[in-house]
Amino acid sequence: MDFRVKYFEIMEKNFPDKRYSTDTLSEKFEILYNELVSFNEKVNLTAVTDVEGAISKHFADSLLIEEYIPKNAKIIDVGCGGGFPTLPLAIVRPDLEITALDSTEKKLKFVSLMAEKLDLKVTTLSARAEEVGRKEEYRESFDCSVARAVARLNVLSELCIPLVRVGGLFISCKAAIGEEEYNEAKKGTEILGTSTKAVYNPILYTSSEEQKRSIYIFKKASATPDKYPRQYAKITKKPL
Ligand code: SAM
Q1: Could you read off the pLDDT of 28-67 as tens digits, one per residue?
Q2: What whole-number distance in Å separates Cα of residue 42 and Cα of residue 39?
Q3: Are 150 and 156 a contacting pair, CB within 8 Å?
Q4: Which atom of ligand 1 is nearest to the CA of 107?
Q5: Is residue 130 within 6 Å of ligand 1 at its C-beta?
Q6: Under 8 Å CB-to-CB from 167, ≥6 apart: which residues?
Q7: Does the Cβ of 150 fall within 6 Å of ligand 1?
Q8: What is the pTM (predicted TM-score) of this model?
Q9: DSSP state of 221
């Protein structure tokens, strides 16, 4: 199957203004795709390895949040796994400085490999988000924290919000969440220093179906109290 043809078809379905429909981007995403499939034979990064699935469910899906990230932002991708949304964002937005954080070192090897191969402004960090959030070097030092498909919103908030500076954004992207998941997280996001800025429910188009997504954007209005983030067991056992 011709990658380029599928790339243009799926990207234009998701982004009709054709913002990602260039030969240069198609070539970079094709390199990413080929490397992903080959690396995936040694280390399990994803179950989605067909061309259409990777372009829609990994590349286009990661780019759904791109327009909400401010220019030249220093961002951290919490639980980036094999590099999503880090790698697609870094490919289309060379202005961003991205720290790709995950607790699984072997997945980060793929992210470093791609950063080198495609000359991307990405640094990897192998650690647990809640520990990084307590370190002075990282705490409240990012313009933006992003996360895709990592945890329920009430848990994710405590991992992501402490990393963002006052005035910055926490952007969560996942399969559509119900009011219930948002409502159970709302109080915690306020304790951690943010208020909800915007909610979007875009549709992700694959070549055969439509899937609902939920993007929540929180703006940091005040510093996170010192006692957060807590140990992971406490975060999950008693979410804020
Ligand atoms: N964001 C990627 C994606 O959308 O393909 C990966 C999603 S995967 C389902 C969740 C990832 O979050 C895993 O790679 C896991 O190691 C990482 N993770 C979960 N909790 C974490 C934590 N507390 N600190 C760092 N990484 C974490």
Answers
A1: 999 999 999 999 999 999 999 999 999 999 999 999 999 9
A2: 6
A3: yes
A4: 14
A5: yes
A6: 219, 220
A7: yes
A8: 0.97
A9: -
Ligand 1 midpoint to CA 100 (Å) = 10
pLDDT in tens, 183-202: 999 999 999 999 988 999 99
Which amino acid makes up residue 220?
Answer: K
DSSP string, 36-64: HHHHHTTS---S--SHHHIIIIIIIHHHT
108 lines ligand 1 (CB under 6 A): no
Amino acid at 191: I
Ligand 1 contact via 57 beta carbon (within 6 Å): no
Amino acid at 67: E
Exposed, middle or buried, 183 (CB in 10 Å: 0-12/13-18/19+)?
Answer: exposed
Q: CA 177, CA 117: separation in Å to the nearest integer?
A: 35
Which residue matches tokens 């932002």?
A: 73
Interval between CA 202 and ligand 1 midpoint (Å): 22
Among 98, 103, 109, residue to substitute to test ligand 1 (most atoms within 8 Å of Cβ): 103
- Sort strands 210-220 and 74-78 into parallel, antiparallel or unpaired: unpaired
Compute, in angstroms, the gap from residue 203 CA to the centroid of ligand 1.
Answer: 23
Give the strand pairing for 97-102 and 122-126. Answer: parallel
Q: How far is CA 203 from the centre of its chain?
A: 17
